[in-house]
């Protein structure tokens, strides 16, 4: 089977984000491996637990968390993109952590590792 690395650069309000999740789920269900999902640019907003999702819409943050729990696929956030958009996992008293569980803040070095371990890289 093929090994993939996925890059998600769209926010939870973009249809491409739900497409990325469905693509990831399909890959796993077909026996492929995913080295990790790297959330970049506005994609990091998917990990903000303070974002409110209307009750009649898919909560993509929860869906990504569920995907992580079911598949064991790591979910990485670009630290620069996260900081630029107000996301932090810091326990500093001056900051309120707002990164949801199962998401890890990482640098671009992690993206290099994920892509070097993959046969194919897909960005959505």
What is the compact description of this entry?
With 124 residues, the protein is an alpha/beta fold. 34% of the residues lie in helices and 20% in strands.
- Please indicate the count of domains: 1
The CATH H-level homologous superfamily: DsrEFH-like
Per the principal axes of the C-alpha atoms, what is the gross shape?
Answer: globular
Low-pLDDT windows of residues: none
- Class derived from helix and strand content: alpha/beta
Tell me the strand percentage band.
15-25%
Number of strands: 5
Mean pLDDT: 94
Order of helices and strands: EHEHEHEHE
Task: Using the coordinates above, name the CATH class.
Answer: Alpha Beta
- CATH fold naming: Hypothetical Protein Ychn, Chain: A
Helical stretch tally: 4
CATH architecture: 3-Layer(aba) Sandwich
Major beta sheet, strand line-up? 4-3-2-1-5
Distance between the termini: 21 Å
How helix-rich are the residues, as a percent range?
A: 25-40%
Characterize the biggest β-sheet: 5 strands, parallel
Computed CA radius of gyration, to the nearest angstrom: 14 Å
């Amino acid at each position: 089977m093929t090994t993939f690395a996925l890059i998600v650069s769209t926010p939870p309000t973009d249809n491409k984000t739900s497409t990325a999740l469905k693509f990831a789920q399909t890959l796993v269900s077909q026996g492929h491996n995913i080295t990790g999902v790297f959330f970049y640019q506005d994609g990091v907003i998917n990990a903000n637990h303070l974002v409110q999702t209307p009750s009649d819409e898919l909560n993509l943050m929860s869906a990504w968390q569920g995907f992580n729990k079911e598949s064991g696929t790591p979910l990485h956030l670009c630290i620069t993109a996260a900081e630029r958009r107000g996301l932090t996992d810091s326990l500093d008293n001056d900051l309120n952590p707002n990164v949801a569980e199962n998401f890890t803040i990482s640098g671009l070095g992690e993206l290099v590792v994920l892509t070097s371990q993959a046969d194919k890289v897909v960005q959505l």
